[in-house]
Amino acid sequence: MSQEPKQNIPRTTRNPKKSPTEMEAQGDGQATRANDTKSELASINSLLRGIAADVSSVKMGLEVLQSTVEKLGGRMSEAEARISNLEDVSNSRGASIDSTAAHVKKLQDKVTYLEDAGRRNNVRITGIPENAEKQDLHGFVLSIFAEKLDLEVDMGFELERAHRVRPKKDDGRSRHILVRLLRFSAREAVLRAARNKRRVEWQGNRISFFQDLSQEVLQQHRKFDMVKKQFQERKIPYSMLYPATLKTTVNNQSHIFTSPDAAAGFLGTLD
């Protein structure tokens, strides 16, 4: 016998019914998850409120800082204005001080010139032992001019006065003799003759003849001492012009130097 083919009848899957206990457990789980979500949301809200409070605090701090910066900016501007005013005053006073200093320098130069003008007929003699003049300094000086400088002592060499300068020193050194001649031409003749002699001695003592100058000009002259010694060693004639200028003549050409360095540089070109 033939058999009829079996038909495949699809099976229907059906969820089995849950028991009341399972349904109760499922409800409890959902409630727990809901509570957890609420708790998390509450935590987030609390955190957001804290952040908002912090932001508000930072904002207030920034506002205070901005206000402080603005105040500092105002004070800085005020300070800059004051500094600018002080600089203007300082510059003005500096210019005034410079002007005053220049005026004082001009007056000092004038005083020095007038002092030296009053000394222009004077000759300062050094190296004469104390008491060598024997109560007649006037006659003694004239004899020095005649015998040691080979000058013709006549009316042109009339002396206004002659004296030792300053009190006698305890160190035994002789005091300078200050001679004031009546005529400037006589003073120039004495100094010229002394330069030409180069070395003058009196009873074994070397004596020297100098211009009588103020301390200010003497200090300027002393700056030339080293270079003057070099001129002397080379036997190059020179003279000092007022106030402090060295003049020399080489190969019939005159040279004038206002500083020791310039004079030394000139000597270097002669090597």
From TrEMBL:
InterPro entries: Transposase_22. Residues 1-36 are annotated as: Disordered. Residues 62-89 form a coiled coil. Keywords: Coiled coil. It comes from the Eukaryota. Residues 1-13 have a biased composition (Polar residues). PANTHER family: L1 TRANSPOSABLE ELEMENT-RELATED (PTHR11505). This is LINE-1 type transposase domain containing protein 1.
